[in-house]
Amino acid sequence: MSERLDFLRTVTPFNLLPDEVLAEVAEALEEVRHPREAIIYYQDVSKMRGLDIIVEGEYETFFYDSQQNRRVIEHSRPGDCYGGISVLMNKKRSLRTVLARKNTRVYFLHRREFRSLCQAYEEFFHFFTARFGQRMLNEEYAHFVRPASSAGENYLASDQLFSRRIETLELRGVVACPASTPIHEVARRMAAARTACYFINDDEHGHISGFVTDITLRDKVVAGLADARQPVGTIQDAPVVTISTKAFVYEAILLMFRTKTRYLLVETDGVFVGYLSRNKLLTDDQAQSPFIFIQSVKQAQAVPELKRRWEQVPEMVYRC
Q1: Cβ atoms 56, 105 nearer than 8 A
Q2: Which residues have C-beta within 8 Å of that of residue 61, sequence separation ≥ 6?
Q3: Other C-beta atoms within 10 Å of 76: how many?
Q4: Which residues are in the Cyclic nucleotide-binding domain (predicted)?
Q5: 129: left (phi over 0), alpha (psi -120 to 50) or beta
Q6: Euclidean distance between CA atoms 308 and 290, whole angstroms
Q7: Can you state the percent helix, strand and coil of the chain, rounding each to 5?
Q8: Rounded distance, CA 10 to CA 213, Å?
Q9: Which residues is 201 bridged to in the sheet?
Q10: Is the pTM of this model over 0.70?
Q11: With 168 labelled, which of 190, 244, 250, 268 sits at a CA distance of 20 to 30 A?
């Protein structure tokens, strides 16, 4: 027991857990040995019962291509885990094919306990989502896990944000006006264009210097009893946050949460080609992603909103 506990303290992300929780995890572990070299999991076929933590030996993980060649080969050694991403994001099926080297020994944690840790400890959960996001930056890796075109085969539908680039999205056109434009005129234009965001150009240089939203008008004009004849530049929000069309969707969402903005200007080679709204990005399908769920909980403003988020957990876990 103490040997397992000492080992877990050296394993990321288990080293992020409180010591009393780690002791319970150590007690729940099962030891599994692989005396012979053999394939133990097949990509998108083998159902993962939980998480493997390598103690001795090595796992070789890879994808088979259409000609049965091994692609994107990686080696997992003592202290590495396998199965977390598969359980959380691939409907419990092994994301990759896994070959266990001879005399490999692992500690096995059942997916029930693993999911409980993910739900209770945000940093623990983020380790797996961040790791998946980093791997999806590898285009060859992303090729093998990219969702299939058929909805029935779409085994990573809720996590397309990790493989999809902003250039594939439909952007809204940038609408802008000079900072000297009266507030009431900007509100009229927003209503006519059916847009919740209007960008503001600097009067001197013509560069976009800020923006106003329906929330800006509500909080600064209506609630603040401001004179709607004033220049819109007096109430604009700033700074404007930008992102490249080559960035991934998940990078855009992270940037929005980090900067607390609801809108991103999208540029290609320094030219603004449109903008994204947070509401547009967080569609119903993407909102089922554990990654997005954590971010939305962090942004919750009140107890009723937290309650609504919590009610999504059973469905989200079921989909995983």
Answers
A1: yes
A2: 73, 74, 75, 76, 82, 96, 97, 98, 99
A3: 20
A4: 13-135
A5: alpha
A6: 15
A7: 40, 25, 30
A8: 48
A9: 178, 208
A10: no
A11: 190
Q: Express as a percent the part of the chain with pLDDT over 90.
A: 53
Domains of the chain by residue range: 2-144, 168-281
Alpha helices, DSSP H, located in the chain: 2-8, 19-28, 84-89, 111-120, 122-135, 139-145, 183-193, 214-216, 249-259, 278-281, 284-287, 290-298, 303-311, 313-319
Tell me how far apart the alpha carbons of residues 309 and 299 are, in angstroms, rounded to a whole number: 11
- Give, for 53, the enclosing helix (H) or strand (E): strand 50-56
pLDDT in tens, 174-185: 999 999 999 999
Going by C-alpha positions, the residue among 86, 88, 80 that lies closest to residue 44 is 86
pLDDT, tens digit (0-9, with 9 covering 90-100), for 1-52: 689 999 999 999 999 999 999 999 999 999 999 999 999 999 988 999 999 9
Distance, CA of 39 to CA of 46 (rounded, Å): 11
Instruction: Report d(CA 260, CA 232) in Å as an integer.
Output: 22
Q: How far apart are the first and last CA of the chain?
A: 31
Q: At the fourth CATH level, which superfamily is domain 168-281?
A: CBS-domain (3.10.580.10)
Give the whole-angstrom CA distance, residue 308 versus residue 258.
22
- Coil/strand/helix, residue 240: coil
**What is the distance, to the nearest Å, from the Cα of residue 154 to the centroid of all Cα atoms in its chain?**
17
Give the Cα separation of 87 and 184 in Å (integer).
53
**Superfamily of domain 2-144, CATH level 4:** Jelly Rolls (2.60.120.10)
pLDDT tens for each residue of 127-137? 998 888 888 88
